[in-house]
């Protein structure tokens, strides 16, 4: 339950302070259900007595002003001394309403859609209408079940937009790469790897170590069919390598020619459709690469303008991971301890205890920001591999027989604790290697910019 004497902890204690000693009939509850075009609101008192029946309003100057006028009129009619506003976090449609109402002096509590779903279910009501949603939101406000009260602003919002856009593009690129692999299987199965004839075991030999490296992409673009590689010959491949700076090794050339000579591919003329499709997909892949590079450059630039650059001093944490963590956590001053961030990520283990027993930890709750949860896992995986300072912690978990995924989550939670302390105190990572230069550690991770020592001091 924590150190607070309230059953809802510090959050409940803060909420009760607003209500203590106040006539609850003078407490207004404003529930707002956001949508793309037709927003709806309901105004009632703390006991649920309806003051203003559900009404529609638009998200424009006149619509917001109409909502504010209704709130002020209800405030006047009830002699209200407290007003609580809540809105369901529906897509991105709620953000403008929260932002504009904030400019009008109202703090709007943001409610997770799953909370309103549970509120409807608790009333044994499986119907879903706008009015029922408003009632559920009102119940959530009365029960102090909101998750946040502030939207990310400034550099936080900018990094949030850029990092989420990059992740979306990376996932699209991954899907496209799978499509290209499928097309290459039809054109030339052995291009992605073959089994040597002199082995009696299922051993795979790759021609190119990286399917998406410069050399592999060059041949997929200009010589995707085995007959085209054979037409080049060893001398032609070497000339192409020198001309286009491919740096192809002799062993790679031999494997490429061997795979081409042994291929059972259809004649090139019968694969005209696949070759055209491959060419188009490779053009799309090039565009995705360019967009991702452009986003990464901008992410790096914005990150260096924030305290988030301190996270780059942690060995194993690269630019994108640092930017995602900094943006998804938000301003650390809104947290009292790092466990609140862990809970926000939903990577806190579920405690199961009953009947006076000792209890045990179950799986993680997964009740939180799934974007931050993704960052926790990827950061933990990277730290497990590349951070020597945290290696003893990793080894202890491994000796206990923990599964790799559980170790990565635990390492990610450790990262959140470290990041919280660093950003709170505005200090870089304290490595056990006293000779480590933080500026050097940060500089080696930057692709498009450099950072001077005086930036660390700032």
Question: What does it look like?
Answer:
With 458 residues, this protein is an alpha/beta fold. It contains 17 helices and seven strands. Strand 2 and strand 3 form a beta hairpin. The radius of gyration is 29 Å and the shape is elongated. The C terminus is likely disordered.
For the termini, the CA-CA separation is: 38 Å
Please state the overall shape, judged from the principal axes of the Cα atoms.
Answer: elongated
Uncertain ranges: 453-458
Helix content: 40-55%
Keywords:
two-stranded antiparallel sheet; alpha/beta; five-stranded mixed sheet; 458 residues
Layout of secondary structure:
Elements: H1 9-19, E1 27-33, E2 39-45, E3 50-57, H2 61-78, E4 82-88, H3 93-103, E5 108-111, H4 113-122, H5 130-142, H6 154-187, H7 214-222, H8 226-243, H9 250-262, H10 272-303, H11 319-329, H12 338-345, E6 349-352, E7 360-364, H13 370-386, H14 391-399, H15 404-425, H16 438-443, H17 453-457
Parallel strand pairs: 1-4, 4-5
Antiparallel strand pairs: 1-2, 2-3, 6-7
Helix pairs in contact: 4-5, 6-10, 6-11, 8-9, 10-11, 11-13, 12-15, 13-15
How do you describe this structure in short?
With 458 residues, the protein is of the alpha/beta class. 54% of the residues lie in helices and 9% in strands.
């Amino acid at each position: 339950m924590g150190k607070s004497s309230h059953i809802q902890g510090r959050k409940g204690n803060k909420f009760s302070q607003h209500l203590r000693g106040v006539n609850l009939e003078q407490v207004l509850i404003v529930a707002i259900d956001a949508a793309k075009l037709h927003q709806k609101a309901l105004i009632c008192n703390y006991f649920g007595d309806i003051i203003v029946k559900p009404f529609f309003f638009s998200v424009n100057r006149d619509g917001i002003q109409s909502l504010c006028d209704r709130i002020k009129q209800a405030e006047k009619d009830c002699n209200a001394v407290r007003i609580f506003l809540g809105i369901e976090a529906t897509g991105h449609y709620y953000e403008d309403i929260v932002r504009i109402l904030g400019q009008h002096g109202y703090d709007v509590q943001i409610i997770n859609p799953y909370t309103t779903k549970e509120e409807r279910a608790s009333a044994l009501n499986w119907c879903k209408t706008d009015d029922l949603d408003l009632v559920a939101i009102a119940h959530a406000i009365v029960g102090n079940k909101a998750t946040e009260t502030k939207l990310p602003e400034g550099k936080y919002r900018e990094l949030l937009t850029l990092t989420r856009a990059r992740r979306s593009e990376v996932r699209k690129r991954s899907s496209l790469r799978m499509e290209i692999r499928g097309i290459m299987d039809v054109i030339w199965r052995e291009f992605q790897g073959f089994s040597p004839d002199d082995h009696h075991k299922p051993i795979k030999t790759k021609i190119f170590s990286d399917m998406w490296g410069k050399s592999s992409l060059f041949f997929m673009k200009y010589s995707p069919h085995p007959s085209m590689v054979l037409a080049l010959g060893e001398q032609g491949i070497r000339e192409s390598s020198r001309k286009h700076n491919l740096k192809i090794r002799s062993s790679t050339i031999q494997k490429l020619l061997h795979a081409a000579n042994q291929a059972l591919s259809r004649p090139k003329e019968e694969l005209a459709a696949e070759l055209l499709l491959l060419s188009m997909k490779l053009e799309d892949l090039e565009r995705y690469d360019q967009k991702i590079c452009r986003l990464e450059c901008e992410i790096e630039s914005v990150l260096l303008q924030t305290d988030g650059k301190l996270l780059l001093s942690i060995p194993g944490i690269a630019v994108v991971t640092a930017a995602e963590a900094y943006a998804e956590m938000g301003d650390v001053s809104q947290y009292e301890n790092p466990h609140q961030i862990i809970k926000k990520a939903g990577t806190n283990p579920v405690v199961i205890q009953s009947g006076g027993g000792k209890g045990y930890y179950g799986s993680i709750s997964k009740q939180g920001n799934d974007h931050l949860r993704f960052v926790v896992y990827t950061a933990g995986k990277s730290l497990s591999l590349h951070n020597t300072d945290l290696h003893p912690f990793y080894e202890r978990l491994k000796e206990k027989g923990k599964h790799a995924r559980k170790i990565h989550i635990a390492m990610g939670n450790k990262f959140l604790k470290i990041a919280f302390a660093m950003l709170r105190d505005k200090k870089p990572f304290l490595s056990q290697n006293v000779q480590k230069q933080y500026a050097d550690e940060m500089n080696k991770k930057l692709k498009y910019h450099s950072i001077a020592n005086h930036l660390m001091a700032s």
